[in-house]
Specification:
With 758 residues, the chain is α/β, with parallel strands linked by helices. Among the domains are: 25 residues; 226 residues, Rossmann fold (3-Layer(aba) Sandwich); 115 residues, Immunoglobulin-like (Sandwich). The protein is 32% helix and 17% strand. It contains 22 helices and 27 strands. Strands 9-6-5-4-3-2-1-10 form an eight-stranded parallel sheet. It has a six-stranded mixed sheet with strand order 11-16-15-14-12-13, with helices on both faces. Strands 19-27-26-21-22 form a five-stranded mixed sheet. Bound molecules: 1-deoxynojirimycin. The site of 1-deoxynojirimycin has 8 residues, from loops.
Length: 758
């Protein structure tokens, strides 16, 4: 009783304090807005790019005079506290109303210290590590003057042709939602006003990952039920976690571009989900709506404002046309006021009105970025993101002594490609290459290395990879024949060949879709020649997306997928190759056999003519020329030890209403090493009012076991886990049977059935 009273009192005080703060914010903003001219209000809705990261064909112009005239609400594209301080000084000292600016940047997987690309990070299935990476990113980014991160990107993606699959957390809405929450928490911390907190920006709202044919910026078309059940949950999770801002996507949703879609930005986001922050468009998304066929700049700007966009990134459609639209009565003052208020509220919540220089302390970068602790965290997180795809005869871990090891491939002695996509502040020169990492591990084994091949020799491909004239991929002056000959001579001296191959930095990420998602052909040829030596080949694979690896799976002795690991790449790879860290990453995307199978994802619907494992059978959901199965399913990943799963035990098999079910398995470490397993819970609803997927992830736990150790792993299941959006988009569960599945990946599961009535 006493405890309940204390709890209620604390709740009352917290609510009271919150209301008092809201009231204080309202009074302040009411007062400020009374003083603002229409032009100044519109100025707050303008986000300009200034720096070196245009992500479209247009750059902002005339930034300085606009700044002085109060025509800019925020800037992005650079991370230099000295320059930002000068700019903020102009905003708060030399403009009429002294309103501070937002400073944004694509802080995606770390700021100075780079962590694995988001797709790799998701393979840790470890929310503590995910949050930690975002927290460190915020610490470093705020040290460099930033207060707004264009992250997390939570777009569900089922198509590995799409280059931006690397920026998200894969194909699953449940896991994606957990990660979205952890990222928001990491960036925003426990108090947005702190000098090491930055505002998160959830993107790209919405459905950007479903671009048709995996072509970036392309059309999206899906049913509301698919949206609600599979694509929208991570955005909602980020909003529920308190994300301060949302970025619109480039694509259409229900045939209306997201930035003009009032159903999306107002009915769903604000009215249904209760989002209280502000909405910014993606880069030039307002003006691009003219190309979508929605009218001239004035028209599309009007549509965007009315739909619920508050800030216009780079188009300057708001800046240059809203006043005219107001005069022509196409929009109302109330609509401008609303958008302006939301931006000012966000600035207030960030503490910018109290102290606009809060994150502009030039002494911080030297003390707080690329610290040994941050690099240590990056190394640990990277090692945990690696996925061991194959390990025949326990060829891995490599022995530190008594062997000759040949590291061969264009990624073996390479710094450039360690960091992956979106590393604006990251310095690849400071990354640890694979060879450096291996040498740092000081093995007594003999270590040899050779390049073996170019990343690619296709000059038009190279031209695209080297965008903005950067030399990211170059053809070696040494001839391909000599590279190959030297590599084979080196390989022939070794006991084990480690082929270090894959995709370079700019082969994935924005505007980097591919139709062929194999290892580039020059490298593949090298791999084939290495395999022909008859020596065991371990493939260390760099990639920003799932690749088609059927041949590699058949011919390599082991495959370790390391994604793009970040600053500490080489050290983390050596940690895993030599067994100081036992890999435990699990895939968060399906790896198809061929591009022809795409889209291929684990939580697909059943059909009336289900595939039965035999692709030759006629009149089934299959192909003439390929099995349906992927090379590696969602949730898959090996360890240097082995785990066995007992049968699924259920606390009850008949449940009613709000009872809870406990489902457990006995997990045993049957190998010779301690290791961590991600135990996954899936549920299938075999009879419902709409056709439900064959299985859906509903829980997971990371379990560390010593060699020989055994543990009971239990999941508590309530009717929450049974719910879905039905044909009326009502979120509820339906009584009947449910299959409860537990296992180490989405295919290797044990099953038990319950009946649950209302
Ligand atoms: C375009 C990208 O789609 C988006 O993710 C990014 O945040 C903006 N450019 C700003 O760089």
């Amino acid at each position: 009783m006493k405890q309940t009273c204390t709890f209620l009192l604390l709740l009352f005080l917290a609510t009271y304090q919150l209301n008092a703060q809201d009231a204080k914010m309202k009074t302040f903003i009411d007062g400020l807005m009374k003083k603002m001219t229409t032009e100044e209000k519109i100025g707050q809705l303008n986000l300009v790019v200034s720096g070196y990261v245009p992500t479209g064909a247009v750059m902002s112009e005339g930034v300085e005079p606009k700044l002085k005239n109060g025509q800019i609400g925020g800037m992005f594209g650079f991370h230099d506290p000295t320059r930002m301080k000068q700019i903020q000084k102009v905003a708060v000292e030399n403009t009429r109303l002294k309103i501070p600016l937002f400073f944004g940047l694509d802080v995606i997987h770390g700021h100075k210290t780079i962590f694995p690309i988001p797709l790799g990070l998701s393979c840790t299935w470890d929310m503590g590590l995910v949050e930690k990476s975002a927290r460190i990113a915020a610490q470093e980014a705020t040290a460099e003057g930033l207060n707004w991160a264009f992250s997390p990107m939570v777009d569900i993606a089922r198509d590995p042709r799409w280059g931006r699959i690397s920026e998200g957390s894969g194909e699953d809405p449940y896991l994606g939602s957990q990660i979205a929450k952890a990222m928001v928490k990491g960036y925003q911390g426990d108090d947005l006003t702190k000098n090491n907190s930055m505002m998160a920006c959830v993107k790209h709202f919405a459905l950007y990952g479903a671009a048709e044919a995996g072509r970036d910026y392309n059309t999206v078309d899906m049913s509301r039920s698919t949206m609600y059940n599979y694509y929208l949950p991570p955005y909602k999770a980020a909003v529920d976690a308190g994300a301060g801002s949302v970025m619109t996507s480039f694509n259409v949703v229900d045939e209306i571009p997201a930035s003009a879609n009032r159903w999306l930005l107002t009915d769903l986001l604000r009215n249904q989900w209760g989002f209280k922050g502000f909405v910014v468009t993606d880069y030039t998304a307002v003006m691009e709506m003219s190309l979508h066929g929605l009218g001239d700049l004035q028209q599309v700007s009007t549509l965007a404002l009315k739909a619920g966009v508050d800030m216009d990134m780079v188009s300057e459609g708001f800046l240059n046309t809203l006043k005219k639209s107001l005069d022509e009565k196409k929009i109302t003052m109330a609509e401008i006021d609303l958008a302006c208020r939301r931006i000012l509220e966000a600035k207030w919540k960030m503490g910018l009105f109290d102290d606009p220089y809060r994150r502009l302390d030039e002494s911080r970068p030297a003390k707080e970025t690329m610290t040994p602790e941050n690099r240590k965290a990056s190394r640990e997180i990277a090692a945990r993101s690696f996925v061991l795809l194959k390990n025949d005869n326990q060829i891995l871990p490599l022995k530190k002594s008594g062997q000759t090891l040949a590291f061969i491939g264009p990624f073996a002695d390479n710094h450039r490609d360690m960091l992956g996509t979106w590393v604006i502040a990251g310095e690849w020169e400071k990354s640890v290459s694979v060879m450096e990492g291996v040498k740092n591990a000081s093995p007594q084994s003999i270590i040899l290395s050779a390049k073996g091949s170019n990343i690619t020799e296709d000059t038009s491909f190279i031209h695209r990879l080297n965008f903005y004239g950067q030399k990211m991929v170059a053809i070696d002056p040494i001839s391909p024949e000599t590279l190959m000959r030297t590599a084979l001579e080196t390989a022939n001296k070794a006991d084990i060949i480690v082929a270090v191959l894959g995709e370079s930095q700019s082969m994935s990420g924005e505007s980097s879709s591919r139709t062929d998602i194999g290892i580039p052909k020059e490298q593949r040829r090298l791999l084939e020649e290495l395999v022909k030596t008859g020596k065991p080949v371990v493939l260390v694979l760099f990639t920003g997306r799932p690749l088609t690896l059927e041949w590699e799976q058949e011919h390599c002795a082991a495959i370790l997928n390391v994604w793009a690991p970040g600053t500490e790449a080489g050290n983390a790879i050596a940690d895993v190759l030599f067994g100081d860290v036992n890999p435990g990453g699990k895939l968060t995307t399906t790896f198809p056999r061929s591009v022809g199978q795409i889209p291929l994802y684990y939580n697909h619907k059943p059909t009336g003519r289900p595939y039965n494992g035999e692709y030759q059978t006629k009149f089934l959901t299959n192909y003439l020329d390929s099995p349906n199965e992927p090379v590696y399913p969602f949730g898959y990943g090996l360890s240097y030890t082995t785990f066995s799963y007992g049968d699924v035990k259920l606390s009850k098999t008949n449940l009613k209403g709000n009872e809870t079910l406990t489902a457990s398995v006995t997990l045993t470490n049957t190998g010779k090493m301690a290791g961590e397993e991600t135990v996954q819970l899936y549920i299938h609803d075999p009879v419902a009012s709409i056709s439900r997927p064959v299985k859906e992830l509903k829980g997971f736990q990371k379990i560390m076991l010593k060699a020989g150790e055994r543990r009971e792993v239990s999941f508590r299941i309530s009717t929450e886990e049974l719910k879905f959006y039905n044909k009326d988009l009502k979120y509820d569960w339906e009584p009947g049977d449910f299959d409860i599945m537990i296992g180490g990946d989405s295919e290797a599961v044990k099953i038990a059935r319950v009946n649950w009535v209302k």
